[in-house]
Write a structure and sequence with these properties.
Blueprint lengths: L1 H4 L5 E4 L12 E4 L2 H10 L7 H11 L2 H24 L3 E2 L6 E5 L8 H10 L5 E2 L8 E5 L3 H16 L1
Helix pairs in contact: 4-6
């Protein structure tokens, strides 16, 4: 709505997460014609290969897949939020495909220690220090097995 009503707003979207096309590096933008003209002049002449375009078009036609992804994301996001709450961590409310989780600010139980512990278990999450949130981790919602493994690892970490 903002992009449709204002001449200086552009909305961008990616095919990375919900559509499962991260490796293709595909996205789109919606905005006023003047802004689209600037973006078009800045882009390279052959910036999106034909097969990538075809994959994007096919993905847009699969509404059932997206609805399933949204439902599964909502289900496992709520489940993980409750699981981390139960072990004493603080998940922030979100509608995204990840949780921002706060950790205690005590040595050995802080976000930096959790990041290292999760990595040692083969679970890669994002530290938020660069975003001025050194006490938090960003944990993407994955499959049921991945989400359960992450919750179990966090539980083990907090029990240490």
């Amino acid at each position: 709505g903002l992009a449709a009503r204002h001449g200086n707003v552009v909305m961008t979207r990616t095919f990375s997460k919900a559509y499962g096309l991260a490796a293709l590096r595909l996205g789109w933008a919606y905005g006023p014609p003047a802004m689209a003209d600037v973006l078009n002049r800045l882009r390279g002449p052959f910036n999106v290969p034909g097969p990538t375009q075809a994959a994007g078009i096919a993905a847009l036609g699969d509404a059932g897949f997206i609805e399933n992804c949204r439902a599964e994301n909502a289900r496992w996001r709520a489940w993980l939020a409750e699981a981390v709450r139960e072990i004493g961590l603080v998940p922030h409310p979100t509608q995204c495909n990840f949780l921002l989780i706060e950790f205690p600010q005590e040595a050995g139980r802080d976000a930096a220690a959790a990041l290292g512990y999760l990595k040692s278990r083969g679970i890669l999450v994002r530290g938020m220090g660069a975003y001025k949130l050194p006490h938090a981790l960003r944990i993407t919602i994955g499959t049921e097995a991945e989400t359960r493994a992450t919750a179990a690892a966090l539980g083990d970490f907090m029990k240490r």
